[in-house]
Design goal:
Family: Belongs to the GART family.
Keywords: Purine biosynthesis, Transferase
CATH topology: Rossmann fold
CATH architecture: 3-Layer(aba) Sandwich
Structural class: alpha/beta
Helix content: 25-40%
Radius of gyration: 17 Å
InterPro entries: Formyl_transf_N, Formyl_transf_N_sf, GART
Strand order of the largest sheet: 3-2-1-4-5-6-7
Pathway: Purine metabolism; IMP biosynthesis via de novo pathway; N(2)-formyl-N(1)-(5-phospho-D-ribosyl)glycinamide from N(1)-(5-phospho-D-ribosyl)glycinamide (10-formyl THF route): step 1/1
EC number: 2.1.2.2
Number of strands: 9
Number of helices: 6
Distance between the termini: 33 Å
Length: 209
Amino acid sequence: MAESPVKARVAILISGRGSNMAALIEASRAPSCTYEVALVFANVPDAAGLETAAAAGIATAALDHRGHGGRAAFDAKVLDILRTHAIEYVALAGYMRLLSDPFTAAWEGRMLNIHPSLLPSFTGLDTHARAIAAGCRLAGCTVHFVTPDLDCGPIVAQAAVPVLDDDTPDTLSARILVEEHRLYPAALNALCGGRLRIDGQRVLGLDPR
């Protein structure tokens, strides 16, 4: 019998309930998936997603981001935790932290984030309310590589949904979240499978359909 291929070791970083984390974990159970979730880390010690991950049999770690003498000092401690768990790739899933340049550099080309807008539009927070206020007819989500500039890394994949006349930020968010849960595992699977290639600001190698 042929041995199962070795899966890449992924850490998911969260700050809250981790709905995208749960989608990544579920996708990792497929035999054909190229990654395993080896660690879930939170900068909020009582983040609800930690309990979800532990119930799934996944190692967890938490470290309150306060009281470490600055962002770079905290990130250095997180980096040590990731190295202890032999992590190869990082997926941000609602991780509400601006990352220091040294941390970003350590994971260059190996760290993804999912953002709830069609980048480059609406970087930062309150994306759904801003899309509605701007009169957008389409909104969506973007998976991108993480770089030092907030929400500006090369785009891996995007998914769009219509903005309806009666949408509120909550109803629009709920529809986009369905697409996030589909898109993020596919993008991470492609990255860990070695199928993505960065060409300037373009990322090649993932069929977004």
